[in-house]
Amino acid sequence: MNQFPLLKGNNNRSKQTMSQKVTMLVVFSSLFVFILTTISYSLLWKINEFTGLGLSIDIDYGLKNETESLKNVTESLKDQTCLRNDTENLRYSLRNNGTENLRYSLRNERDNMVSKPLKKCDIFSGEWVPNPEAPYYTNTTCWEIHEHQNCMKYGRPDSEFMKWRWKPNECELPIFNPFHFLEIMRGKSMAFIGDSIGRNHMQSMICLLSRAEWPVDVSYTDDFSFKRWQYSNYNFTMATFWSPYLVRAEQVDSKGDLINIYLDEFDEKWTAQIKEFDYVIINGGQWFLRPIVFYEKQKIVGCQYCSWENVTHLTWHSGYGKAFRTAYKAIVNLGNSKVVTILRTYAPSHFENGVWDKGGNCIRTKPFKSNETRLEGYNLELHTIQLEEFKRAEKKAMKRGLKFMLLDTTQAMLLRPDGHPNNYGHWPQENMTLANDCVHWCLPGPIDTMADFLLETLKREGFTSFPKKDFI
C-alpha cells in the first residue's frame, strides 16, 4: 500500500517535467555549442588575416559538422510534438541568420586582406621627412648597383641622404613592400624604356626586391643596356631597353657629339618587343639637351647646337614632344589591351656652381623643402611637354581600351639635390667625362622612393595580388 497516495500523481508529472527539462537542456546545450564554435572560428579567421593560413575550408567543414550535430539532436526530438515546431524554427533561424551571417562576415574579412590604396590624395605633392629605418639594402647587400651610382663604395662621407621618405601633404605613402609587389606581378612582365635614369630605376627595384627574391639573368645579350631579369618563384620578368630619345637615333660622328634623331620613326629595339610585356615604363629628358639633327620623313627639318648653313635652327622643345608622340603611337598601334603604359616623369639634375662640363657640382647633404625651390626653366618646360603628350595619348588609348598611368615624380626628385653621386661615382684619379654626376642617383638613395610611388599607383588603379571574387 502506498504510504504517500497523494504523491503518486505528482510522481508521474515530475517524470514528465523532468523529461521536458532534459529535452530543453539538450537543445540549448547544442545551441550553446554551435554559437561557441561559430565564435571560435570567427576568432581563428581573424588570426588567419595575419598568418595567411587557409582556414576557409576548415571553417566550412566545422560548420557542416556542427549543423549535422544539431540536425541529429533535432531528429531525436521529433517525437516531442511540443518541441518539433520550435526545433524546426531554430534550425531555419540558424541556417539563414547564423551561418549566412558568418559567411557574409568572412567575405568581408577576406576583402580586408586585399591591400587597400590610400584615401584619394595627391601623392606627388608633399615633403621629404626623416626615415631612420632606411635604407632597406646597402651597397654590400645588393650586387646590382652600377659602379657610377655606388656612392658609399667610392667614399661618400655622409649617409643621411639615404634616410628620408616622401610624405604627401594629405596622406601617408607606404614604404615599398617587395612581397606585395611581386604578388601583383606574378606571371607578368615589366619593361623600363628610355635613358640611363630608367636603368637606374630598374637597378633600384632589383635591390629593393632582393628582400624577397634575387632574380636570374635571362638576357639575350651581354649589353647591359638591354638586360632581362626573371624572378622564378613569381614568374615575373623585368627588362631594360636603352632608348634615350625613344625614337630611332644614330650617331653622326664617332665621338657621339652630334646625334640624328628621326622624330616620326619607331625605335624598333624596343617597339618590336614590347608586345610581350604587361607594363611599360617610359622616361626621357636629359639627352634632348644635347646637339641634335632632327629628321622627319627622312629629311632634315632642323638642328640644335650645330650651326649648319641652310639648316633651320630648332630647339629641343618641338623634337621632345614629337618623340614622345611617336613612342606612344608605337604602343597604341599594337592594339594589345594587356599592355599598361606608365609615364615616369622627368627627374631634374642639380648642377650648381657651373654646368655639367664647366665645374658644376652637387654637394648638398639635405633635401630642399618645397618652399625653398620650384620647378622652372627647362625643367618646367620638359615636365609640361611630357604631361601634354601623355594626356593626348591617353585619350587615344582609352578609345582602344588601353590603360595609361602617370608617375609624376618630378616635384619629389626636384627636392633632392643631395641624392646624386657628384664625385663619388669613381676613384679620384680616374679621368671621367662626367666628373661630377648630378644627373643619376646614388643607390641606396632617393630613387628608391619611385618604387613607393609605383606600388601605390598600381593599387589605386586596381591592380591587386588577390582575386576579387568571393571565396565562399
Automatic annotation (TrEMBL):
<keyword id="KW-1133">Transmembrane helix</keyword>
<feature type="domain" description="Trichome birefringence-like N-terminal">
    <location>
        <begin position="119"/>
        <end position="172"/>
    </location>
</feature>
<keyword id="KW-0472">Membrane</keyword>
<dbReference type="InterPro" id="IPR025846">
    <property type="entry name" value="TBL_N"/>
</dbReference>
<dbReference type="Pfam" id="PF14416">
    <property type="entry name" value="PMR5N"/>
</dbReference>
<dbReference type="InterPro" id="IPR026057">
    <property type="entry name" value="TBL_C"/>
</dbReference>
<dbReference type="Pfam" id="PF13839">
    <property type="entry name" value="PC-Esterase"/>
</dbReference>
<dbReference type="GO" id="GO:0016413">
    <property type="term" value="F:O-acetyltransferase activity"/>
</dbReference>
<feature type="transmembrane region" description="Helical">
    <location>
        <begin position="22"/>
        <end position="45"/>
    </location>
</feature>
<keyword id="KW-0735">Signal-anchor</keyword>
<feature type="domain" description="Trichome birefringence-like C-terminal">
    <location>
        <begin position="173"/>
        <end position="456"/>
    </location>
</feature>
<protein>
    <recommendedName>
        <fullName>Trichome birefringence-like N-terminal domain-containing protein</fullName>
    </recommendedName>
</protein>
<dbReference type="InterPro" id="IPR029962">
    <property type="entry name" value="TBL"/>
</dbReference>
<keyword id="KW-0812">Transmembrane</keyword>
<dbReference type="GO" id="GO:0016020">
    <property type="term" value="C:membrane"/>
</dbReference>
<dbReference type="GO" id="GO:0005794">
    <property type="term" value="C:Golgi apparatus"/>
</dbReference>
<comment type="similarity">
    <text>Belongs to the PC-esterase family. TBL subfamily.</text>
</comment>
